[in-house]
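U., I forgot to send this yesterday:
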Amino acid sequence: MVLRYYLVEGFSRQNVLIAIGSVAGIGVLFLAAQFYGTMAVPQEEFIRYLQGRMADPSRTELLNFSYIWYQPLVKEIHDTWERMPRICWAFRCSRLLIWLHAPLWRYFCGIDPIVVEPFTPRRHRRHCRP
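Result:
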């Protein structure tokens, strides 16, 4: 929504209020789904239903994700903290990739003094800071 609407239309008081209301509404829906969105059927019955709807029921490895609908929020938080070392490693890799791409960013924004005639189309200049 930010990329497709707000960067084109700009930020006004009405747009910011609508964005805040949208984020609040989505947050309330998320919390309601976390605390009131439990499955009313046992997990085994749900897996049998999914197998009946599959094009190839012999591929049972595709149903390994069924625990998602039966896992409480506390268990989700615990699993996230267990995976945190790998997640933090991904953040470090992302920072490295951004740093490695910085020369390209400077080139396309036209702020690299080494490049004599940079290719900077008019539509890209307005999003780049000099």
